[in-house]
TrEMBL record:
PROSITE patterns: PROTEASOME_BETA_1, PROTEASOME_BETA_2. One of its GO terms (cellular component) is nucleus. This is Proteasome subunit beta. The active site is at 79 (nucleophile). Component of the proteasome complex. One of its GO terms (molecular function) is threonine-type endopeptidase activity. The gene is PSMB11. It comes from Scleropages formosus (Asian bonytongue). It catalyses: Cleavage of peptide bonds with very broad specificity. Its main location: cytoplasm. Keywords: Cytoplasm, Hydrolase, Nucleus, Protease, Proteasome, Threonine protease. The proteasome is a multicatalytic proteinase complex which is characterized by its ability to cleave peptides with Arg, Phe, Tyr, Leu, and Glu adjacent to the leaving group at neutral or slightly basic pH. The proteasome has an ATP-dependent proteolytic activity. This subunit is involved in antigen processing to generate class I binding peptides. Component of the proteasome, a multicatalytic proteinase complex which is characterized by its ability to cleave peptides with Arg, Phe, Tyr, Leu, and Glu adjacent to the leaving group at neutral or slightly basic pH. The proteasome has an ATP-dependent proteolytic activity.
Amino acid sequence: MALQDVCGFSKTPLVLRWNSPSWSSVTVGAPHGLDGGRPTWRHACSDKDGCSENSLSPFLLASPSSPSVPLPFSLSHGTTTLAFVFQGGVMVAADTRASCSGLIACPEVHKVMPVHSHLVATASGSGADCMFWQRVLARECRLYQLRNHRRLSVGGAAKLLSHMLHPFKGTKLCSRTKMSGRGPRLYYVCSDGTFLQGELFSVGSGSPYAYAVLDGGPRWGLSVGDACVLAREAVFRATHRDAYSGNCVDIFHISSQGWRRREREDLREDT
């Protein structure tokens, strides 16, 4: 995605046609317009363009707000993510359970995602929103390095994400992101554009239980091993009490040499 703009591929006829307004105005067939038990999908594309009526996948055309595609249940979010600063850098941890209402959608989700070689972000909220915007942020960080021959700072990346999310304030966009990087630096960015800097953040339905462990003593003087044990203990206690958090724990350590990931551990073995 980053090289696409630098090399000018975004101006090719195929990309321009895909991004044209004729492809963006898509209508979903009415419920009574069924053909063989399947709905009919229509898009505003003329025959001279060489595209048929069913050339687009229904999964790309369906909208959650469409009356013909009702949501089976109300969306609710639950997770446990945390990050804190100590003398050895930044320690980041999160559980791996993705929940939707009363269901466990996926037990092995990556909620801690590397954005760049020096930057790691945690995701809490709507999984699709978080993954999309972190991919966009990773693209912008790569573009910045290609154009300026230096990496974007952690604060600059967090501020960039805040500016990109602010226009969506008041919408159903749900994304809570913690940006951790060398410095050490730790920032919290919300989907309404909130931009905060601190030394300890925990977000999600299990965050009250994680805070109870993290606030129990000083953190700055911890060694890397002790900080890792503290982060793991906080996530474990949160998953023990919060029904929307659980399964495994991912732990990342960010230092001046970059980020390093610890092997994923199954928290169910300790119960």
